[in-house]
């Protein structure tokens, strides 16, 4: 394989691991730089270890593999993107999932965030509205060994009532308002991480926690830019 422009790169597992280590260094720097806003200057060691295990280059189109570990979003087809590594890391950290957590992701995309969640929690459910992306992500996750993940095609605004309630819900596309069904499917002590705002304009990453009395607490975490959470049909 020919190297892309710039420094020559090999594609050995060791070279990929080195790229991941550099990506994680960047993530840690950005976490520190934004810590005043996010309240998370240090990400959990469990999340950092999981980032080191997921082969991000397997989730991007062939021609973008050499840029898979850059700290930015990349196109994945159908007008969609794989999110920036720092944002994926921060959202995962905010979700605070443990091994026994039931986790719902809205917006499977290429499945990278899904894989990271599957490294951390036993029960991971993910919904994607674009059938082709859902099918590709499903195959990719199986091929990479993430066989416990449950995927579904549908409109994530509705959540996944049959599998609810969840300890954590991550929405990886921007909603104009927080979908009520997602709040309804959140357990006590559950955490919903969601970008809220207008499409392609200023959005806030928001963390909503349900306390043990059922009350919701909201924290605005960071300005972000996500593709829109679109409306569509229910589960296919
Ligand atoms: N988590 C992904 C990010 C993908 S971008 C990753 O790690 O790469 C957001 C994704 O949300 C897109 O694939 C888009 O098709 C999907 N999406 C948009 N609106 C949706 C909806 N209502 N329900 C489910 N998925 C949706």
Write up this protein.
- The protein has 236 residues and is an alpha/beta fold.
- It has a domain at 72-224: Rossmann fold (3-Layer(aba) Sandwich), CATH 3.40.50.150.
- 31% of the residues lie in helices and 24% in strands.
- The chain has helices spanning 13-38, 45-53, 85-95, 112-120, 131-143, 180-184, and strands at residues 74-77, 80-82, 102-106, 123-128, 150-153, 166-171, 186-197, 203-210, 216-224.
- The strands form 2 sheets. The protein has a 7-stranded mixed beta sheet with strand order 5-4-3-6-7-8-9. Strands 1-2 form a two-stranded antiparallel ribbon.
- Helix 1 packs across helix 3 and helix 2 packs across helix 4.
- The protein is globular and about 55 Å long.
- Bound molecules: S-adenosyl-L-homocysteine.
- Residues 80-83, 106-107, 109-110, 112-113, 127-130, 133, 155-157, 172-173, 227, 229-230, 232 line the site of S-adenosyl-L-homocysteine.
What is the structure about, briefly put?
The protein has a domain at 72-224: Rossmann fold.
**CATH architecture identity of the domain at 72-224:** 3-Layer(aba) Sandwich
- Would you give the CATH topology of the domain at 72-224? Rossmann fold
Strand line-up in the sheet with most strands: 5-4-3-6-7-8-9
Number of strands: 9
What string gives the helices and strands in order?
Answer: HHEEHEHEHEEHEEE
CATH class call of the domain at 72-224: Alpha Beta
Q: Let me know the largest β-sheet.
A: 7 strands, mixed
Structural class: alpha/beta
Percent of residues in helices: 25-40%
Low-confidence stretches: 1-8
Helix count, DSSP H or I runs of 4 or more residues: 6
Shape label: globular
